[in-house]
Amino acid sequence: MDWTAVNEEIGFRIPVMHIEFWEIISDEHGIDPTGMYRGDNDLQLERIEVYYNEAARGKYVPRAILVDLEPGTMDSVRSGPFGQLFRPDNFVFGQSGAGED
């Protein structure tokens, strides 16, 4: 049986916590913040497809969708160290926040 995962993170500050998850998973699999494999053990690539899709030129892209009503939250994620790890079209955000509702 093949195992795959798609992570959806929705809501206030959730995408920021989601990045922490991807930092840990990336470290375990030897993936750097640009999505390139920099590991030193073939076991790191075993079952990598559970969390990542392999894109062009050997880049690994998280199987993730980040959703938030607050565009500022997404801007902080995109401008952070792991922001370029994600596909730009996997960021979904509103034009104004929920106002802490």
UniProtKB/TrEMBL annotation:
Residues 20-99 form the Tubulin/FtsZ GTPase domain. Keywords: GTP-binding, Microtubule, Nucleotide-binding. It comes from the Eukaryota. One of its GO terms (molecular function) is structural constituent of cytoskeleton. GO terms for cellular component: microtubule. InterPro entries: Beta_tubulin, Tubulin, Tubulin/FtsZ_GTPase_sf, Tubulin_FtsZ_GTPase. One of its GO terms (biological process) is microtubule-based process. Belongs to the tubulin family. This is Tubulin/FtsZ GTPase domain-containing protein. It comes from Timema poppense.
